[in-house]
Amino acid sequence: MIQLGNSIPAVSVTLVTKDGQEATTADTLFAGKKVVLFAVPGAFTPTCSAHHLPGFVVLADEIKAKGVDMIACISVNDAFVMRAWGEQQNAEAITMIADGAGAFTKALGLEMETGDFGGMRSQRYAMIIDNGVVKQLNVEAPKQFEVSKAEAVLAAL
User: Fold this and answer.
1) In-domain check, residue 55
2) Burial of 41 from C-beta contacts in 10 A (0-12 / 13-18 / 19+)
3) How many CB atoms lie within 10 A of CB 30?
């Protein structure tokens, strides 16, 4: 599993943009920026839709006031799903990232098998990245939602 002080891997991800989608690599996307990245097991799922993403939407201005250049949400979903979910959640302040095949999630060592829920998904986590280097990593215990919520990240900043 990725550790504090490790660099974000050069793995392909899909950035959801206003005009569609853009293929990029995670290391390029996060280079030269202070980023809060949080991952959810799935878009449109109960905790993710009712609490995780909305918490970052509500606290986006406060988080960015701490010197954060980008707040990003990633999930093992395709770009079309991430776009629809972001629109449904009014997440204009959040950069939505699709990890369709789970390559980024696997490269971090943060994948989990969920069986019939959706197969391989990401564990729930939040990290603070500074110029491509992991400075804070909060991985949730199974079926928990405490250390990766927006309030915990804001307190860590």
Assistant:
1) yes
2) buried
3) 23
Binned at pLDDT 50, 70 and 90, residue 18 comes out as confident
In a domain, 2, yes or no: no
- Residues near 84 by Cβ (< 8 Å), separated by ≥ 6? 43
Task: Please count the structural domains in the chain.
Answer: 1
Can you give the residue range of the structural domain that contains 102? 12-156
Task: List the beta bridge partners of residue 28.
Answer: none
Q: With CA atoms as reference, report the closest residue to 38 among 156, 128, 146.
A: 128
Task: With beta carbons less than 8 A apart as the criterion, state whether 152 and 126 touch.
Answer: yes
Query: CA-to-CA distance for 134 and 136, rounded, in angstroms?
Result: 6
Contact 51, 142 (CB under 8 A): no
DSSP 100: T
User: Which of the residues 48, 110, 129, 134 is marked catalytic?
Assistant: 48
Residue 118 has pLDDT above 80, yes or no: no
Q: What is the pLDDT of residues 61-109, one digit of tens each?
A: 999 999 999 999 999 999 999 999 999 999 999 999 999 999 999 999 9
Label the pairing between strands 70-75 and 34-40: parallel
What CATH number does the domain containing 33 carry?
3.40.30.10
Kindly state whether residue 97 falls inside one of the protein's structural domains: yes
Note if 73 is an active site residue. no
